[in-house]
Design a protein that fits this description.
It is elongated, with a radius of gyration of 24 Å. With about 200 residues, it is mainly alpha-helical. The two termini are about 30 Å apart. It has a two-stranded parallel sheet.
Length: about 200
Amino acid sequence: MKALIIAATAAASLIATAASAQQAGAPANPGPVIPGVCVYYNARLLAQSSAGQAVEARMQQLAQEVQGELQPYATSIQSDAQQLQVSGSSLPADQLQQRRQALQQRAQEAQQLEATRENELRYTLGMQRQAITEAVSPILTALYQEKGCGLLLDRESVFMMNPAMDVTDLAIQRLNTALPTLSFNRMAVPAQTQAQPAAAN
């Protein structure tokens, strides 16, 4: 069950780590500002904007809710399996087989439910990040024009730079105004989305 929470929040944790790593090892002399070249760090915006932080906090809550839903299934199945192991030798062969099959079916149903909930969490996270991306796109366009950028680079592909060329802080400030937070619940994965991977195979 812990793996489910990790799966739901691992990306957010990686973003926070990347954002802090950006500050480490900065050169004492950052070099000249190159006219027309701007840099934007989307991972830092997702980690530090108020909407991005709201998404991470809510996803952790949703993952914990899912864990609370699934844990009783795991506990019950484990308990029944232990009881069957202890009392199995005293049962008639046909009853033992029936109980084993019933236990196996319950375990499969629990696994299917866990997979469904994990897909829902992943889909929900993706939809919230899409909402942030849609909100920040016009902000980046405006900054590109205001700063006279002729080239906007992704910070992920830039090893070192003069921080004066970084427009991320301004993007975060404006996004915090345009999209202060996001409120949402766990979302069901649309049937069409579920069918796409199967169709691709």
